[in-house]
Amino acid sequence: MSLLQEKKQEIISQYQTHPTDTGSTDVQVAILSEKITKLSLHLRSNKKDHASRQGLLRMISQRKSLLAYMISQDPTRYRELITRLGIRG
Q: pTM for this one?
């Protein structure tokens, strides 16, 4: 489940920290969150798709690692990002 290029550019433009930013932690977490959402919807209707489930778990783990790095570097930016994304109850 990959994202369309237009959707990916839209996410990058929303979460970038400066005009040429395409790979900061904010952007990576936002892209992963969108992919996780799409894959979760796919798995609701395709319960036996174990390969996609494994990919979903890998993406969740990667996002968790990026968020752990982010909270250690800049806790205020971390809090802002999770509220914008609506993750972490």
A: 0.92
Number of domains in the chain: 1
Q: H/E element holding 42? A: helix 25-45
Residues whose CB falls within 8 Å of the CB of residue 52, separated by 6 or more in sequence, listed in order: 1, 39, 42, 43, 46
The amino acid at 46: N
Full residue range of the structural domain in which residue 36 is found:
5-85
Instruction: Give the domain CATH number at 26.
Output: 1.10.287.10
Average pLDDT, the chain: 94
Identify the band that residue 89 occupies on the pLDDT scale cut at 50, 70 and 90. Answer: very low
